[in-house]
Request: fold
Amino acid sequence: MRTTLVIDDNILAQAKRHALAADITLSELVARALREHLREGALPPDVPFVLATWGPDAPSQHLGPAEIWAAQEAEDLARLQRR
Reply:
C-alpha cells in the first residue's frame, strides 16, 4: 500500500544510507523497522480515554471513544437525511 509520511530530513538521509548499505529499498527498511517496533510491544498500554462534556443543557457525563463515535455517526446520518 502506498502512503505519505513526513520524516525529518536528517532521519530520511540516514535511512536512505542504511537501506543502500543493506541493499534493500527504503520502503523495505521502513516496513522492517515498523514490524520490529511493533513486535517489541512498543505501543503504550491502552489508557482509558474519557471526554467530559458540559454545558447549560448537557448532563455531566463521560464518554469513551465508542460512544463519541456513535454520537458522531448519528449526527452525520441525521445531517445526510435532512439534505
Notes: The chain has a mean pLDDT of 83. The first helix runs from residue 9 to 22. The longest strand covers residues 51-53. DSSP finds three helices and two strands in the chain.
